[in-house]
Design a protein that fits this description.
The chain is an alpha/beta fold and 354 residues long. 36% of the residues lie in helices and 21% in strands. The radius of gyration is 20 Å and the shape is elongated.
């Protein structure tokens, strides 16, 4: 007979006594989670991390004495531990949260403004799920890297006939950046569905556009799909690839969630299968759940090329695993080789060098 599974031990770090109490109450309702302590600022948290050795830390973005991102850098460089950020649903909160995800935070929960108590109770199931998922992830030490110069964006002379659709969820912020930083400036157009709330996707697109070789947009309905460009699904809408005469365009819809999500990766992949068929390349990256598996299978059945991130490099080997087990993935690829694999499938003979 197997022994009882030990609960996930959580340390809550937040300067608000109200939020600390709410989070403690919410997490205590799940028998698979144990709150082992709380801290009002990073200096108290530092000592409690050493004493309690938690499995997961929840970390407020904005705190006195030391902000959450600065403290996260210290955690990830000195004592890598799964961290779930608790962020305000504001533009400033979105920018800081995306930085935290790049540094190594596993995931985040966006707390709406207004009646915080009611809002946090409404987020209970999401928070409990993300805490338990974070405990199973493989976090790595974070080391600050010198910024890489962005290649010039030349005029596109010989665009590829291919179109790329990428789906991701937990861990996707950093994974997408890794893939796009290794792309060529005149690469094939890319449509991306990343599970992310409204407001966060616009900040995500701006952040990628500043750093990546290709132009990056938050997709607009009817926007023409062109080489050298990346289109991010808005947090409130499904993103589809559609035809408008001889051209491809982005189509946004407010249809109900699919596979539990809006935007949904399944919706993007199915639309690529319908609109582009054998011209489409589908890529499924790290993420929790199964969104994208059915759509990627439809794309493969339409003679498109399908790639999945491998288990070793996935922060959460959920979506790629389900897609692979259903026969939707033609080849599994390590994250650092994904850009090359996509470009090879598009017919590019070599990557641009930085």
């Amino acid at each position: 007979m197997q022994g009882k599974t030990q609960p996930v031990r959580v340390l809550i770090v937040d300067d608000s006594a109200l939020i600390r109490n709410l989070l403690t109450t919410i997490l205590a309702e799940d028998p698979e989670i144990e709150v082992v302590g709380t801290a009002s600022d990073p200096f108290v948290a530092r000592d409690r991390i050493k004493a309690l050795n938690p499995d997961v830390i929840t970390l407020d973005v904005e705190m006195p004495k030391m902000d959450g991102v600065t403290f996260l850098r210290k955690i990830m460089s000195l004592r890598p531990t799964p961290v779930v950020m608790v962020s305000t649903l504001t533009q400033a909160g979105a920018d800081v949260t995306l930085e935290a995800l790049e540094i190594g935070a596993v995931d985040f929960v966006a707390k709406p403004t207004g009646n915080i108590a009611n809002a946090m109770v409404g987020l209970a199931a999401e928070l409990q799920t993300k805490i338990k998922m974070a405990a199973r992830t493989k976090v790595r030490a974070h080391h600050t890297e010198a910024p890489r110069p962005r290649p010039a964006r030349p005029r596109i002379m010989n665009p590829s006939a291919k179109i790329v659709a990428i789906g991701a969820s937990t861990g996707g912020v950093e994974a997408l950046k890794v893939v796009l930083m290794d792309f060529v400036p005149d690469g094939p157009p890319i449509l991306v569905t990343q599970h992310m709330p409204e407001r966060f996707t616009a900040a995500f697109a701006r952040r990628l556009d500043r750093e990546c070789p290709m132009r990056v947009f938050e997709a607009e309905n009817g926007q023409r799909v062109e080489p050298g460009s990346v289109y991010i699904a808005p947090g409130s809408s499904h993103l589809e690839l559609a035809r408008d005469g001889t051209h491809f365009v982005c189509r946004l819809t407010g249809e109900p969630p699919v596979s539990g999500h809006r935007p949904s990766v399944d919706v993007l992949f199915r639309s690529a299968a319908r609109a582009a068929g054998s011209r489409a390349i589908g890529v499924i990256l790290t993420g929790m759940g199964k969104d994208g598996a059915d759509g990627l299978l439809a794309l493969r059945n339409a003679q498109g090329v399908t790639l999945g991130q491998d288990e070793a490099t996935s922060l959460v080997y959920g979506m790629p695993r389900v897609a692979f087990e259903r026969g939707a993935v033609m080849r599994q690829v390590p994250l650092h080789e994904m850009a090359s694999a996509i470009l090879d499938a598009c017919g590019f003979e070599a990557r641009a060098t930085v």
